[in-house]
Amino acid sequence: MKTGPARAGTASVAMVTLHAASTSALSTSFLSDVRALLDTAFEGDFTDEDWNHAVGGVHVWLSGSRGLISHGSLVERTFACSGQTLHVGYVEAVATAPALRHKGHGATVMKQIGELIREHYALGVLSTGTHAFYETCGWEKWRGPTFVDGPRGRARTPGDDGGVMILRTSCSPHLDLDGEIVCDWRLGDVW
Length: 191
Known about the structure:
By secondary structure, the chain is an alpha+beta fold. It is 22% helix and 41% strand. The longest helix has 16 residues, at 105-120. The radius of gyration is 17 Å and the shape is globular.
């Protein structure tokens, strides 16, 4: 899908293309390029566990004449909130090449991810320290306490309180944003 002209600097206009595909449909070479973008964008703070969380679902990315511009992943997880178990679209690995930030590329990727969430899930969920960006894309901050259903039962994850955001869909149940939200277990950062 073409997104139309995007300003590259102030003098020229370049086309960027929006893509979406499952991890299994992507080449090893392309996935290496995505990993390189994430390593650069997160300045070395993107781990192998973070990478494992980002694969196995759908990737959405923007590319231009010089390659990969921006990326985000959407993976399915099981959450409990407002007393209901929900299959959610969980957002991972959102990043834009440092030299191309603040040009709307990340918002374009997040808009497409939002559309995929609305088509396939009752709710979108992500964890971030950058609330303002996601709020402009329609996401809301979860105000209540966070938990994980871990190998030893339900456990509090107080370090994640205030960092979780949701995107409602037409299938979302009534949600109490001050109530508990519980994620499923995974290795590494559970949120």
